[in-house]
Amino acid sequence: MSAERAGLVCLPTYDERENLEPICQGIHDSSPDGTGELADRLAEREPRVRVLHRPAKQGLGRAYLAGFAWALAHDYPLVLEMDADFSHDPRYLPDMLAAARQADLVLGSRYVPGGGTENWGLGRRILSRGGSLYARTVLGLPVRDLTGGFKCFRREVLEAIDLPSVTSVGYAFQIELTYRAIRRGFRVAEVPIVFVDRRVGHSKMSRRIVLEALWRVWGLRGSVAARGTGRAAPARPQR
């Protein structure tokens, strides 16, 4: 996790040894492959890096929730999440921080004008677009990219959406956080990004994660929909 007092970037790093140092450099300008030890060395020489170790792999959602809790406990006004594999390019961080001046939750979006993907096969493009459209339809949301994991939260959002009760992982985790934020009346903005497939390492996407997202959205609609209403804002910063 790399931070300045204005905001903190939560960066899950399981099996990301080859990406960790360059992604930390890009942001600033218990993994089996030794990622934890490398993170500790980075923190020793870079005061803006904080390392949060967990006893075992518990999934991406649990990792983010642990990072969010740490950020809230240390009074960060903005909390960002992104992948460590450069599929979320650090060059978009200024745009997202600018959008956060007017929005409560900013999404790095592949599916608004100016956004897109690179190095994806047809099957993955269909799965991603179709999954986002499916979730939007079931939940009745105007947000274009519900499954993306490049986000910037105001701390008030994370404080309001009852993080301990979030149980989803993978795609469903991303859908659930955005849905809860909108249902509680927070403004959501989408900033265009181009998502590039990972440079090195292996994708953590699995059939189980996809299937969870398909059925989980129905549970979200039933369990969260009664907890308030909200709106999505189309505002985006000039590039």
Overall average pLDDT: 78
- CATH homologous superfamily placement of the domain at 61-224: Spore Coat Polysaccharide Biosynthesis Protein SpsA, Chain A
> What profile does the largest beta sheet have?
6 strands, mixed
Mind telling me the C-alpha Rg? 17 Å
Which architecture name of the domain at 61-224 does CATH use? Alpha-Beta Complex
3D architecture notes:
The chain is α/β, with parallel strands linked by helices and 239 residues long. It has a domain at 61-224: Spore Coat Polysaccharide Biosynthesis Protein SpsA, Chain A (Alpha-Beta Complex). The chain is built from 8 helices and 8 strands. Strands 1-2-3-6-4-7 form a 6-stranded mixed beta sheet, with helices on both faces. It has a two-stranded parallel ribbon with strand order 5-8. Helix 1 runs parallel beside helix 2, helix 5 runs parallel beside helix 8 (207-224) and helix 7 runs parallel beside helix 8. The radius of gyration is 17 Å and the shape is globular. Mean pLDDT is 78; it is low at 1-5 and 229-239.
Features:
single chain; 239 residues; alpha/beta; Spore Coat Polysaccharide Biosynthesis Protein SpsA, Chain A; two-stranded parallel ribbon; 8 helices; 42% helix; disordered N terminus; disordered C terminus
